[in-house]
Design goal:
The complex is a heterodimer of chains A (224) and B (367). Chain A contains nine helices and no strands. Chain A is mainly alpha-helical. Chain A has a single domain, classed as MetI-like (MetI-like fold), CATH 1.10.3720.10. The longest helix of chain A is centred in the N-terminal third of the chain and has 42 residues. The radius of gyration of chain A is 21 Å and the shape is elongated. The chains are: A mainly alpha (224), B alpha/beta (367).
């Protein structure tokens, strides 16, 4: 393959509709777990912040799950969710997202200064209203920092799914590798990187917009 | 009126934070709870708005046992200010101040208008309204905390070491501000501090607590200084108790002499013959210009050409004996110039007059 150029633009042109499809599939499989993970992490994180004894077991379990090789989990799930289905990818990635987001939610809630919480109580907030109007909003910067990590890692992990037949842009790696043909590999890498960068940028913009009051950039970096 | 009726608080770990506390906090006055760290001040305060419930005894708010009132409802009627201000970092200053009005369901416009009014009242620049708390200094945040506590015009205000975390100069101005506000608003205030000077400066009445949550003494500041109930209170009051007590003795009782003043337009020759060692020169507007010693005067001219020595004044009818004494110590004559509210000289309190007044105070201390 010595004479082969790194990128063959004509191949990209011919396969563009298919690339787009893979990209869309990748986005869905990467983001559904993050959204689902966030929705699940909120109540679990709330419980972990309220009942501290719950926190360590939950995070411990999540860390164990996080440490499992993704490929192994995909393979284990195939009999349940089916070969080459989105669910086979989305379910484990949801757990990975939760492993990052539950601690983020707990850290976010515990980042609410005690004197702020106390003054909310003293002014006559009911517990629910205090949670919704004071504690969760103040937790947002830390949760968003966790969301950035979860999103980027989810985008990169989807590709592994190609080994079990459903990996979004990851398919291009397998395809290029099997055919000793670099163009799809380059396209896959570049698109994955752009996707991750765009998603991260959107979250940073969201953070600036949602929390103009946050001076806690250092705290956010720490949590990330 | 807030009534503590045999109130005890025992925490689950067995700590007795407050022990059989009975006292009354009169309506429209500042009652200060003071005592060393850990003596149960915060616990006592928080039992009033039910952030903590007592394990024994009752707390009555205008005769109603507070434990019969739903906590959020109770708290919306009681302002609360704490040391770090406790402002909501994610809300603009104006919305922080409007917190309780929002909770009470006021419409947004009315709540914000009220908040602006209060910001002005506590002496804050209205341009700060649209900022976030982190953009304010500690002293400014504390003022916002006070404004927020007053927003829904609660009759009762609880303040837990509100000025302890700011530097002494800012603290002094916040204290003045509180006294000024209180003169307008007449709230029933319970103020907690570990600083006895603050307690004496702010309190209409001061409750000294000892560790273990027992009341050591409840008295107005002058009585506290003059007659500490026991060694604990005496020690807690610290040094210079006698001098500090003079702050609470009105300067009115001082005998004034009217014959020691001389107009600035007078000829030197007309005063040189007097037997007095010192005379105070009075300007055309009635205000004091300084002291002169007749025996050192030049041969001719008017007093306007004579350099006058420094002087100190106290306002008759307003300032304390301590101020008068201070004024006397500021002039070489050792006498204090008494002025009226507009700064016009009304007489001179001589060393002899001060001595008599001090003797009366000392007499009072004897029994
Ligand atoms: N939640 C709690 N559990 C157990 N002990 C407490 C609790 N809160 C306060 N205490 C104890 O009660 C005593 C009084 O505390 P506090 O009212 O905070 O005192 P102060 O405000 O005068 O410093 C202290 O000994 C303190 O350690
Ligand atoms: Mg305290």
């Amino acid at each position: 393959m010595g004479e082969e150029p790194l990128v063959r633009w004509d191949w990209i042109g011919r396969n563009w509709p298919e690339i787009q499809e893979l990209l869309a599939d990748h986005i869905i499989m990467a983001l559904v777990p993050v959204v689902a993970g966030l929705l699940l992490a909120l109540p679990l994180g709330l419980a972990g912040a309220r009942w501290r004894w719950l926190y360590q077991p939950t995070v411990g379990t999540m860390n164990v799950i996080y440490s499992l090789p993704s490929l192994a989990v995909f393979i284990v799930l195939i009999p349940i969710t089916g070969l080459a289905t989105r669910a086979t990818i989305i379910v484990p990635l949801t757990f990975y997202a939760m492993a990052v987001l539950i601690p983020a939610v707990v850290d976010g809630l515990t980042s609410v200064p005690e004197h702020v919480r106390q003054s909310a109580v003293a002014m006559g907030f009911t517990p629910l209203r205090r949670l919704l109007r004071v504690e969760l909003p103040i937790a947002v910067p830390v949760v968003l920092a966790g969301l950035r990590v979860a999103t980027v890692s989810s985008i990169s992990l989807v590709s592994v799914g190609a080994l079990v037949g459903r990996g979004g842009l990851g398919y291009l790696f397998i395809d290029g590798w099997q055919r000793q043909f670099p163009t799809p590999i380059v396209v896959g890498v570049v698109l994955t990187a752009i996707l991750a960068a765009v998603a991260d940028l959107l979250l940073v913009v969201a953070q600036r917009w949602l929390t103009p009051w946050s001076t806690a950039r250092s705290r956010v970096r720490e949590a990330a | 009126m807030i009534t503590f009726d045999g109130v005890t608080k025992r925490y689950p770990d067995g700590t007795v934070a407050v022990d059989d506390l009975s006292l009354e906090v009169p309506t429209g006055e500042i009652t200060v709870f003071v005592g060393p760290s850990g003596c149960g001040k915060t616990t006592s305060l928080r039992m009033i708005n039910r952030m903590i419930d007592p394990s024994g005894g009752r707390i009555l708010l205008d005769g109603v046992d507070v434990t019969t009132i739903d906590p959020p409802t109770l708290r919306r009627g009681i302002g609360y200010v704490i040391q770090q201000a406790g402002l909501f970092p994610h809300r603009k200053i104006v919305d922080n101040v409007a917190t309780v009005p929002y909770l009470l369901g006021w419409d947004k416009k009315k709540a914000r208008a009220r908040a602006m009014e209060l910001l002005e009242r506590v002496g804050l620049d209205l341009r700060l309204a649209e900022r976030y708390p982190f953009q304010l200094s500690g002293g400014q945040q504390q003022r916002v905390g006070v404004a927020r506590a007053l927003a829904a015009d609660p009759p009762v205000l609880l303040m837990d070491e509100p000025f302890s975390a700011v530097d002494p100069i800012v603290r002094a101005s916040l204290q003045e501000e509180l006294l000024r506000l209180q003169a307008e608003l007449n709230k029933t205030i319970v103020f907690v501090t570990h600083d006895i000077d603050e307690a004496i400066k702010l309190g209409d009445r001061v409750a000294v607590l000892r560790v273990g949550g027992r009341l050591a003494q409840l008295a107005d500041p002058a009585t506290l200084l003059a007659e500490p109930a026991d060694d604990f209170v005496r020690e807690f009051l610290g040094r210079d108790r006698g001098i500090r007590r003079l702050s609470f003795v009105p300067g009115d009782g001082l005998r004034l002499r009217g014959d020691l003043t001389v107009p600035v337009s007078a000829e030197v020759s007309s005063v040189r013959g007097t037997a007095e060692a010192w005379l105070v020169v009075v300007g055309d507007d009635g205000g004091p210009l300084g002291w002169i010693a007749p025996k050192d005067l030049p041969d001719s001219g008017t007093l306007a050409e004579v350099p006058a020595a420094p002087y100190g004044t106290f306002v008759r009818g307003r300032d304390s004996l301590r101020s008068a004494l201070d004024a006397a110590l500021l002039s070489p004559s050792g006498n204090a110039v008494a002025v009226d509210g507009s700064g016009r000289v009304v007489g001179v309190a001589t060393r002899e007059a001060l001595d008599e007044a001090l003797a009366r105070v000392a007499d009072g201390a004897r029994g």
